Automatic annotation (TrEMBL):
The keyword Acetylation does not apply. It comes from the Bacteria. This is Putative 3-methyladenine DNA glycosylase. Belongs to the DNA glycosylase MPG family. The lineage of its organism: Bacteria, Bacillati, Actinomycetota, Actinomycetes, Mycobacteriales. InterPro entries: Formyl_transferase-like_C_sf (IPR011034), MPG (IPR003180), MPG_sf (IPR036995). Coiled coil: none annotated. GO terms for biological process: base-excision repair. It comes from Nocardia africana.
């Protein structure tokens, strides 16, 4: 699936890891390597396949996690067909189950709304770590999984067009 379409589809979905569930509320789509249909120089796969980004080239629905700035585990869902790199970074979420556990993992969060706000905090609230790399997220038996919600639509702004101020 094209990365922007995958990003739209993940909005409103729920990611579960053990007793903690987070509704996905902010995402960022990334294309892939120069040989693919969605070249994106900002993507980890923008210069081709490496051991770190190999799962981005796998089938869709896999967990791509990486360590950022030596302290944050960032969470992505692969979206392209097998062999074509692309992924969606999960930037923020709303904890909907397991608040106490999420709070214990994010003691610096001042309010519940902050528990999974920001890419590194999203992974921390769910307890996702580097060994989770490559998890099949749509496998109902997986320890970490994604459950899609209703599709969210988009449209042009109403009453805004040429000549509007």
């Amino acid at each position: 699936m094209e990365p922007l379409a995958a990003a739209r589809r993940l909005l409103g979905a729920t990611m579960r890891s053990g007793p903690v569930a987070v509704r996905i509320v902010e995402v960022e789509a990334y294309g892939g390597d120069p040989a693919g249909p969605w070249h994106d120089p900002a993507a980890h796969s923008g210069r081709g396949r490496t051991p770190r980004n190999a799962v981005m080239f796998g089938p869709p629905g896999m967990l791509y996690v990486y360590f950022s700035y030596g302290m944050h585990t960032c969470v992505n869902v692969t979206s392209g067909p097998d062999g074509i790199a692309s992924a969606v970074l999960l930037r923020a979420g709303e904890v909907i189950e397991g608040h106490e556990i999420a709070r214990s993992r994010r003691p610096a969060a001042r309010a519940d709304i902050d528990l999974a706000r920001g890419p590194g905090n999203f992974g921390s609230a769910l307890g996702i770590t580097l060994p989770d790399y490559g998890t099949a997220l749509f496998d109902p038996a997986a320890s970490i999984r994604v459950e899609l919600g209703p599709e969210i639509t988009d449209s042009a702004a109403i009453g805004v067009g040429p000549g509007s101020a």
